[in-house]
Write a structure and sequence with these properties.
Helix content is about 40%, strand content about 20%. The chain is α/β, with parallel strands linked by helices. It has a five-stranded parallel beta sheet with strand order 2-1-3-4-5, sandwiched between helices. The longest helix has 13 residues, at about 10-25. It is globular and about 30 Å long. The model has no long low-confidence stretch (mean pLDDT about 95).
Length: about 120
């Protein structure tokens, strides 16, 4: 079982991601609805993985991922977003994100993304 930090400005998205993670035998140990306090919460919750949305009101997912990956070079970040374009995907991948998934996602896609770290 791995511990997850779910960052998404949509409460509904956080709920569904958490439900999928629970179905896969994982635990959500921390949630945030924007990128403002992610680094502080990450240090406090010590998750194994982070799922993060791209578009959030205060600080976007690329900026947060960049900050997290600089603070912890072993951070395992999966971006789950409704916005997919080549430029933003490349920015995300160069900011420390390992995998980008397009909403709506399936439990199987999430499982594959998690397993891709091994």
């Amino acid at each position: 079982m791995s511990k997850f930090f779910v960052v998404d400005d949509s409460k509904v998205a956080r709920h569904f991601i958490g439900k999928m993670l629970n179905e896969l035998g994982h635990e959500v140990v921390c949630e945030a609805d924007d990128g403002t306090d992610v680094l502080k919460l990450y240090s406090k919750c010590k998750p194994d993985f982070v799922t993060i949305d791209l578009e959030m009101p205060k600080v976007d997912g690329i900026t947060v991922s960049n900050t997290l990956s600089k603070a912890d070079t072993n951070a395992k970040i999966i971006m789950i977003t409704s916005i997919i374009d080549k430029k933003r995907t490349m920015q995300a991948l160069s900011s420390g994100v390992h995998t980008v998934l397009q909403k709506p996602i399936t439990t199987e896609q999430l499982k594959e993304a998690i397993n891709s770290f091994n």
